[in-house]
Amino acid sequence: MSDTALLDAPATTALKVENVVLTFPDGEGRVTAVDNVSLSIDRGRSLAVTGPSGSGKSSLLAVAATLTRPESGQVWLETRDGVVDLATVSPRRGAELRRDQIGIVFQQSNLIESLTAREQLEAMAWLGSRPSRAKRRDARERADELLCVVGLGDAAGRSVGALSGGQRQRVAVARALMSEPSLLLADEPTSALDSESGRVVMNLLLETAREFEVALMLVTHDATVAARCDAQLHLVDGAVVQ
Ligand SMILES: Nc1ncnc2c1ncn2[C@@H]1O[C@H](COP(=O)(O)OP(=O)(O)O)[C@@H](O)[C@H]1O
Ligand SMILES: [Mg+2]
């Protein structure tokens, strides 16, 4: 499909992955981590990616995150500046996209212990720029708003080191939403949490995707969670299995 064809498609398509192949060196040969995978996610919709360990879930997510470049295939992302093929962007442009248009939540929250919850979010808005006073104020307002959305309005001024695992992951979700991304990627975001905290974080991801009209790609090993997503993609040995 050409660039133009996606523009003609319903305007709600946020991510379209086509025939992506990714291999890694493996001893004498190579292992196919992603084997000709295609998918698409509309804004406000969620896709669960499931499959056994080593089936390519994280590799597929890394491609969509511009963290890994595939050997072949296209990864169209609808951005504020038009449609971009993530499979061929430069490392520099990829970093910009991760800062401005793609939210990522990993297994561990990767927060800076010494910062407050609010500062974690504000720092996202400041990355790579020297913020004006107005920009700082906007970032602070948005940070506080998002912390309320994730149920941590009261914890905005607390340092992350003092928060529970579940609260940290909620800060990580809020941080991922700071840039108003069109795509939210989450790789087993609750696997380090107890089941109740995990449930809260999952609800949050599914609800915010809908409410903020973000396309959500969610790697999970939990069939119940997968069933709550709008669509599911099951991988075995890197390939999609119906
Ligand atoms: N950086 C890497 N170097 C070499 N092989 C890798 C690398 N990342 C993933 N792989 C291999 O790719 C396959 C898919 O891995 P991964 O995407 O991590 O699966 P999952 O997330 O489903 O557990 C596995 O065979 C894994 O060993
Ligand atoms: Mg993985």
Question: What can you tell me about this protein's structure?
Answer:
By secondary structure, the protein is an alpha/beta fold. It contains eight helices and ten strands. The chain has helices at 3-8, 57-64, 91-100, 117-126, 133-149, 165-177, 195-211, 223-228; strands at 13-26, 29-42, 46-50, 72-79, 82-85, 102-105, 183-187, 215-219, 231-236, 239-241. Strands 6-7-8-3-9-10 form a six-stranded mixed sheet, with helices on both faces. α4 (117-126) crosses α5 (133-149), α5 (133-149) packs across α6 and α6 runs parallel beside α7 (195-211). The chain is globular and about 50 Å long. The relative contact order is 0.19. The mean pLDDT is 92. Adenosine-5'-diphosphate binds next to β2 and α2. Magnesium ion binds next to α2.
The proportion of residues in beta strands is: 25-35%
Q: What portion of residues is helical? A: 25-40%
**Strand line-up of the largest beta sheet:** 6-7-8-3-9-10
Please state the overall shape, judged from the principal axes of the Cα atoms.
Answer: globular
| Bound small molecules, deduplicated | adenosine-5'-diphosphate, magnesium ion
- Report the count of strand segments: 10
Q: What is the straight-line distance between the termini?
A: 23 Å
Low-confidence stretches: none
Order of helices and strands: HEEEHEEHEHHHEHEHEE
Which structural class best describes the helix and strand composition? Answer: alpha/beta
Q: How much is the radius of gyration in Å?
A: 18 Å
Please give the count of helices.
8
Summarize the main sheet: 6 strands, mixed
Question: Mean pLDDT score, rounded?
Answer: 92
